Amino acid sequence: MKYKRSLLKLSGEALMGKNGFGLHSTRLQQYAEEVKKVVDMGGQVAIVIGGGNIFRGFSKIGEDKKINRIEGDYMGMLATVINGIAFQAYLENIGICTYLQTAIRMDQIAEPFGKDRAIHHLEKGRVVIFVAGLGNPYFTTDTAAVLRAIEIKADVLLKGTRVDGIYTNDPEKDKYAKKFKNISFDMVYKMGIKVMDQTAFILGNENNLPIIIFDINKKGNFKKVISGEEIGTLVIKKKEKNNG
Questions:
Q1: Does any domain span residue 197?
Q2: Overall domain count for the chain
Q3: CB 76: neighbour CB atoms within 10 A?
């Protein structure tokens, strides 16, 4: 196993499958089984899920002037809690002990976030789902995922998407687009890659956290990535030249 402790970032949209809104039971079951494969092989798994399948705060601002950016972002945070509860239920149903940790206190539902407690759960073989983002507006769940990965000392952050990596162009629009096997954070900035927000990439670069973009919808890919197979695109810190 190449990566003992990982943080898996899933978008809220990933959970709705072919539905236009909400949650898709088949997709939830599929992702739960992917996580179980990694846990069964001794991997430590933390998860951050977005909330775009329920509410995307920023996109609603222009549509409804009565909801401002801060209010919209808090609504988005609550959407991640709904997704976290749902995914916890599916994980528990297949025998995976799972804990929710939230950045906004709601004691009847989840533990308040604590990195030491989260690490303890992971070391005991439990899955930890971080919800409510960072508890502050103006930060995306991508940024929350990178920060949580740094805090729990994860070996890697895995961004599960419907595309199997980073390409020179959008592969869904350009059939000649070429996939990167490896790419530096610096190159990601220059190319304006949008698969994660820039703040998340900057945090990853500054803290030397490798990020892998991969296709989570292909069965077995999560386990393959953890095992060290070259799935997706690895984003890493550019090595500094030694002038000595």
A1: no
A2: 1
A3: 25
